[in-house]
């Protein structure tokens, strides 16, 4: 194991064991290096790496702290990776959405509040048939985000935020090239929401699967 990797593992161990918690300050560099049996250079490189993935927060002139470790903050690294994806990998992101989002819709059906149903219902009626492609995609993103929020699971929300961004261009492309994209999207959204509103988790799962798979199938044929 490289020395920097060893340092990362040891710092991670301090966090997972509960020795260091969110917001805690790490010991001084010299003290921590001696305690972990590492060189100061290896420790410094490990701190840099853990800072990049938002596990640690270096405050110049103050010290190094464990971050809040909340899911949205930690998953920023995923969003960064998604931003670097190539166009030929977008189908892989659709596959991930098809694996995740039907389960999210099913969970939302068991947890959604009446207020959240109303908000989503407004989204399904807020788009005119002659809406622009940009308006369609923005509405679609808000709809899927709203369903994720209805689960009450912040990890799910953060994951889908990153993945949805990677498929945004494909949805714009579909909206430009496929006739009836607005009407089809709204009809599918309404069917998903109908199932969620009556708390039919399996119907919500099925409708969401069809919705995601429809775009994925179109993209495979168009590629």
Automatic annotation (TrEMBL):
The protein's name in its UniProt record: FadR family transcriptional regulator
CDD domains: WHTH_GntR (cd07377)
Domain (HTH gntR-type): residue spans on this chain: 1-69
PROSITE patterns linked to this entry: HTH_GNTR
Keywords: DNA-binding, Transcription, Transcription regulation
Gene3D superfamilies recorded: GntR ligand-binding domain-like, Winged helix-like DNA-binding domain superfamily/Winged helix DNA-binding domain
Gene Ontology MF terms: DNA binding; DNA-binding transcription factor activity
Transcription in keyword set: yes
InterPro entries attached to this UniProt entry: GntR_C, TF_FadR/GntR_C, Tscrpt_reg_HTH_GntR, WH-like_DNA-bd_sf, WH_DNA-bd_sf
């Amino acid at each position: 194991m490289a020395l920097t990797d060893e340092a990362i593992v040891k710092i991670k161990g301090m966090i997972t064991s509960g020795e260091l918690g969110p917001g805690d300050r790490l010991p001084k560099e010299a003290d921590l290096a001696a305690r972990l049996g590492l060189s100061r250079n290896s420790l410094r490189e490990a701190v840099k790496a853990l800072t990049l993935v938002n596990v640690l927060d270096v405050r110049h002139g103050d010290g190094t702290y464990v971050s809040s470790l909340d899911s949205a903050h930690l998953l920023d690294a995923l969003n960064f990776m998604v931003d670097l994806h190539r166009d030929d990998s977008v189908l892989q992101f659709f596959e991930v959405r098809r694996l995740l989002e039907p389960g999210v819709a099913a969970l939302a059906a068991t947890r959604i509040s009446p207020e959240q149903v109303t908000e989503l219902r407004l989204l399904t009626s807020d788009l005119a048939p002659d809406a622009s492609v940009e308006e369609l995609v923005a509405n679609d993103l808000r709809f899927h985000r709203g369903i994720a929020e209805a689960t009450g699971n912040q990890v799910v929300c953060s994951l889908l935020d990153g993945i949805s961004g990677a498929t945004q261009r494909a949805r714009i492309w579909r909206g430009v090239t496929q006739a009836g994209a607005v009407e089809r999207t709204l009809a599918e959204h309404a069917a998903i929401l109908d199932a969620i509103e009556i708390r039919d988790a399996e119907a919500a799962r099925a409708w969401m699967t069809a919705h995601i798979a429809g775009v994925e199938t179109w993209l495979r044929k168009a590629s």
